[in-house]
Sequence to fold (633 residues):
Amino acid sequence: MTRKLLAALASWLYAALLFGFIFLPVVVLVLFSFQDGRLPVPPFNGFSLRWYEAVFADGKLMAALLHSFLVATVSSLVACLFGFLAAYALARYRLPGSALQRGLLIAPMTVSYLIIALGLLTVLNALGVGLSLWTVGIGHVVINLPLCFALIYSSMGAHHVNIERAARDLGAGEVKVMLLVTAPMLLPSLLAAFFLSVTFSWDEFIIAFLLSRFDVTLPVEIWSLLRSGLNPKTNAIGSLVFLVSVSVLMVLELWLFRRTRKS
Amino acid sequence: MTAPVSIINATKTFVGFTALDNVCLDIAAGEFIVLLGPSGCGKTTLLSILGGFLSPTSGRVMIGGKDMTHVAPAKRPTTTMFQDYALFPHMRLKDNVGFGLRMRGVARAARDERAKALLDLVGLKESAEKKPHELSGGQRQRVALARALAVDPDVLLLDEPLGALDLQLRRQMQDELKAIQKRVGTTFVHVTHDQEEAMAIADRIAVMNRGRVEDFGPPAEIYMRPRSLFSAGFLGETNFLPGVVEALDAATAKVVTAIGDLVLPRRNFTAAEPDPGQQVTLCIRPEHFRRAGEAVRPLTPLGQARIADAAFFGTHYRCHLKPAAAGDPAGDLTIMAHMPPSAMVADGQDIVLAVNAEDVVALPTPAGRA
Ligand SMILES: Nc1ncnc2c1ncn2[C@@H]1O[C@H](COP(=O)(O)OP(=O)(O)OP(=O)(O)O)[C@@H](O)[C@H]1O
Ligand SMILES: [Mg+2]
Fold:
């Protein structure tokens, strides 16, 4: 009896420690974004929304927010498009060295963001391309393309082949088959790939930092804020970033993954 | 619309494997053709060559008098109904059925109207707004048929469309399929390995084996006068009885077998003219055996046989018999015969078998099977 109780207690304690370890930083971050005082450190002086006001009043932060949004959506769209085309080609046609090509497409996943950023920086310099949000976007396409490709390729089952054949048989050309039949059938994985890319791009720092100059994305802007010391304002913007990421993931989980499980 | 189809010397080889071997078929416009054969005999391959999904290694395909051998599926006057139906899962039924018309640039209102008419034809008018996953297997099959017919093809290709259905639904759908084909008049080429289905719907059956068409004709002809041993054995049950051609005259040939001699009309040698001394195999359907003195038509007696076992099937007794012929070289010869249900049949009973020579078909025995 006591042993059972002890075991139950131990497992609860373990779970509490585990979740505490994972979520405590976030909780602290969010909590002290409401701090009524100058420093985001204990003790908690009282509840206030002034730091959120400060965030929304800060033009540079708001611009960075917009930049992040643009880079995330555009780069994710491009990564999804390229990933889809590559997956379609490799799943439906016999190409020379297709196993090797698949490997090459997924390989960037194993390379660290720092290396990718340095490589791109060198290449862009050599080509004389100036740094901008576009170059950040290119970097994000590079890191998200393997993910999009892998997700979409794995959902392109052989059971779709006959359906595409049927479309061709009824008079559809290659482009129409892709647009009207293949892509809609793969919609769940296309959306999953897109939203995952968005969250990765949204949070990404190193590439965004090394490949941008005047216009920067939110993580880079937050970093420069941090250099001037801790401040509940950084907590507030961090909480907002976190909120966006969580919302996107919730949409994915609740709506998309449920739907794919059903069908 | 409808069109004739000719397959001329079509051969298809995959790496080191001949899936189709010099196939020739002439199909008239508006015919219901069934390709019948065991698994792996090349039915799907032949259908894919007709539909344009495969190119023959050699040979030609003519549809409506035009050479279509290397024309893409979209440009052929054919549509295919796939074994797994291949409906577009994300489209409503009316959009599935209207897809072909959409590709032909037909306006929305017109194609919806046509889709509704076709869904009506297959008895699914009420479900036009549903998606495929809301349907049963039989209903999906009907949608696939409606979709294939919506573009008014000259030739409809059906790859085992009834394969996934249970027996009862299958019998019902095959009647509907036949009725619809009669109404629209399109040439149907239908693949199956169910011989009963083939007999029920076909105008003509092409019996396929190992990439070859072994026999091609109306069901009754294939059953009564098969032109190959394979087709005799594949369509219904049959007894194979080895024999030797002994004497010939203008109209008949005498064949000597272990259980008796038979004088057959020469036209019953369906594959090749008889030669004296030639090894032949006689094909006798179980229902063609009679007891001596039983029928009105002249019978040739085939000696005594003992009933090894008998089972009652309602319309007949199905009996295995051991012929008692002296000097039987094939000591293990067993004959299967159907006896009328009114007959007194008991295990171990001795009866005198007989057959009408008109019903017996003789085919050359292939070398190595004598
Ligand atoms: N792409 C291919 N590569 C190699 N061999 C193939 C290919 N497609 C078919 N075959 C072979 O050709 C033969 C005929 O195949 P096919 O699909 O036409 O058979 P089938 O008569 O339709 O059989 P089933 O009744 O099982 O559908 C088979 O032995 C198969 O293994
Ligand atoms: Mg097949």
Remarks:
- The longest strand of chain B covers residues 300-312.
